[in-house]
Q: What sequence folds into this?
């Protein structure tokens, strides 16, 4: 499980629009790395739209926003196009990054247990260290809280 103050583990993952995205190449910008369960579900859609609506404010705060899920790049592109999203979406299809970052967890729904992505957000400073972590995120108000923290960093 990652903690504040630790260096954010680097990764290179395929992204929407083609190519790959490497976390360390975002420096010296701050990074908002948010993990979400699945493209085009109600909570995930609201969260992605929220980050997109505030994209200029995050950019003014010196932060790049990156969404991570297990969905394929093709699903990310469909999701992006359907909702006019502007945040980068990367595919962790093998859940390597999710497992390493502590967001691949056992969940339960209707008494059935399964593995899935826990909604979480990491704010990473310009040196690549984790400045703040939000776990078990509830979407309402979350984007505003992350933006406030990015501005304060």
A:
């Amino acid at each position: 499980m990652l903690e504040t103050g630790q260096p954010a583990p680097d990764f290179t993952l395929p992204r929407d629009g083609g190519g790959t995205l490497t976390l360390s190449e975002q420096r010296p910008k701050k990074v908002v790395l948010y993990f979400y369960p699945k493209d085009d579900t109600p909570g995930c859609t609201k969260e992605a739209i929220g980050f997109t609506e505030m994209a200029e404010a995050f950019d003014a705060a010196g932060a790049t926003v990156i969404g991570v899920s297990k969905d394929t790049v093709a699903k990310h592109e469909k999701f992006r196009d359907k909702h006019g999203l502007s945040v980068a979406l990367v595919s962790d299809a093998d859940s390597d990054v999710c497992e390493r970052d502590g967001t691949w967890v056992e969940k339960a729904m209707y008494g059935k247990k399964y593995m899935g992505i826990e909604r979480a957000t990491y704010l990473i400073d310009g040196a690549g260290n984790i400045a703040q972590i939000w776990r078990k995120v509830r979407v309402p108000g979350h984007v505003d809280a992350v933006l406030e923290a990015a501005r304060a960093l």
Q: What stands out?
A: Strands lie at 12-14, 20-22, 30-35, 63-69, 88-91, 104-109, 112-117, 120-124, 130-134.
